[in-house]
Design brief:
The chain is α/β, with parallel strands linked by helices. The chain contains ten helices and 19 strands.
């Protein structure tokens, strides 16, 4: 097609929304949204009993509904069964009534590899897996044994296979799955060497999630950086981290992004230490990330009450500045325009 004819078609709006022309060929773009920790229970139960479980997503739902892949860390079992683990300081659980809202808003990939998914034992995990399957929500990182905990979740989007592997690297060690023991997938080197190349071979785009680091620490530990680089060297396309509950920096390694910690998202804690988070929107064209936008969020629950609020103006810029500063040690450049941050990939 000649240049002027192509330009005329573009100006006339003849190509469908969500379609991008690359060297004369139509290529569907895939939007991947990634956020931090979700835990809808605990001290906010009164809020959910009054306002329902759609309430936490009132302000962010348009982003997830526009997304093709929506990923988060589910920091809780979803259960009415089991007993809380004895001797653990904090134990969480979320009502199964919350899952329809998660599915409706568009969450279709969840990490279960964390230090709370076994808070209500094997019964609690079993009900979690059952209800997520019932609502067709993909998950990875926990299962009735180690082999199943290490299986990738794979979803099909616009003819592409998007896969997720999830691992925990935090205590308690009693939560790690074994040959005949339910639990989480631990980030053993031999597991990564085995799992990542195989999942990459069977998918078009591979997300690897790690639960790692120290709570409330703003810079990753050295082992987090080593794990992230190793996962990418083995074939991961995107690394997403959780556990610190606060934002950490973003690195672009071998052209692939690493979000060391996205902080909390809709998380039922009223800690004065947790103020801000981001929703990262990645645009995938073919099998390549072409654009990363950062949407700043207020997650300070004494103000937003477990309903993340999209920020704008100076408030949004302050959060993006925080991420930019945390990312400088990795040599990552982040631009700012129209209330959003933009990660410079190349």
């Amino acid at each position: 097609m000649k240049f002027w004819a192509l330009l005329a078609l573009l100006l006339a709006g003849w190509f469908a929304p969500g379609t991008v022309m690359v060297f004369g060929q139509e290529t569907d773009r895939i939007l991947i949204n990634v956020v931090g920790d979700i835990m809808l229970g605990g001290s906010a139960m009164g809020t959910f009993e009054k306002s329902g479980y759609d309430y936490p997503f009132d302000e962010t739902a348009p982003y997830f509904r526009a997304g093709d892949v929506n990923f988060a860390n589910l920091e809780t079992p979803v259960t009415r069964e089991g007993e809380p683990i004895a001797g653990k300081q904090f134990t969480f659980r979320m009502s199964p009534d919350a899952v329809p809202s998660l599915a409706k808003v568009g969450f279709n990939l969840l990490s279960l590899a964390n230090n709370h998914i076994m808070d209500y034992g094997e019964k609690g995990l079993a009900q979690t897996l059952s209800i997520l399957r019932a609502y067709h929500v993909g998950f990875s990182g926990a299962g009735p044994n180690e082999a199943q905990a290490r299986l990738p979740a794979v979803i099909r989007v616009k003819g592409k296979k998007i896969a997720l592997l999830a691992y925990s690297a935090v205590l308690p060690a009693s939560f790690y799955a074994g040959k005949d023991r339910a639990g989480t997938a631990f980030a053993f080197e031999e597991s990564l060497r085995s799992d990542i190349p195989l999942a990459r071979k069977e998918s078009d785009f591979l997300i690897v999630s790690f639960h790692w680091g120290r709570e409330l620490q703003s810079f990753p530990e050295e082992y987090q950086i080593r794990l992230a680089h190793r996962a990418i060297d083995l074939g991961a396309d995107l690394i997403v981290g959780h556990h610190p509950h606060v934002l950490q920096g973003i690195e672009v390694y071998q052209g692939r992004p690493i979000f060391y910690s996205l902080g909390n998202f809709a998380f039922s804690s009223y800690s004065p230490s947790v103020h801000s988070s981001i929703l990262a929107e990645l645009t995938l064209i073919g099998n390549r990330i072409e654009q990363i936008e950062l949407i700043a969020l207020n997650v300070y629950n004494p103000v937003v009450d477990v309903r993340p609020r999209v920020l704008s103006g100076e408030d949004a810029e302050a959060v993006i500045d925080e991420v930019t500063e945390a990312s400088w040690p990795f040599g990552t450049s982040i631009g700012w325009e129209a209330d959003r941050g933009w990660v410079i990939l190349r």
